[in-house]
Amino acid sequence: MSPALQVDGLKGLVSLQTLDMSYNQVTKLEEIYGLRKYVPKLTTLNLSGNGLCEDKSYRPTVLRKMTRLVWLDGRKISASEAAMYGGDNGGALTLAMILEHGSTGHRFGVAGA
Predict the structure, then answer these.
(1) Residue 75, Cβ neighbours under 10 Å: how many?
(2) Which among 28, 37, 95, 96 could bridge 83 via Cys, Cβ 3.0 to 4.6 Å?
């Protein structure tokens, strides 16, 4: 499906909170980029069963674009995912991530940390 076809059908649904687009032949991440603009209150998104889910950067990319999501593909977004990909930190290491996972040395394989 073309990106325009996927996203244009959502215009005017600004209060939509749950969207199930599973098994819908969505193959490229670019096809979902407009979701944030058209459905800004979206908290639950299901894209499972689509080709784009096989992309290594799928989940991080969706979480960066859709910062209000609580559920993605039937899986609750963890605190560490929200801290890493959501908000304004742009993937930077945050205090919340360090507190959740212990020392930065342990998480990132640094000896003696």
Answers:
(1) 11
(2) 96
Q: What is the CATH number of domain 1-77?
A: 3.80.10.10
The identity of residue 111, as a single letter, is A
Q: Where are the domains of the chain?
A: 1-77, 78-113
Q: pLDDT digits over 91-108, tens only?
A: 555 565 566 556 555 555
The pLDDT, as a whole number, for residue 37 is: 85
For 44-70, b/e burial (b = at least 16 CB within 10 A) is bbbbeebebbeeeebbebbbbbbeebe
DSSP letters spanning 26-61: ---GGGGTTHHHH-TT--EEE-TTSGGGGSTTHHHH
In terms of Cα–Cα distance, which of 73, 62, 67, 71 is closest to 24?
Answer: 73
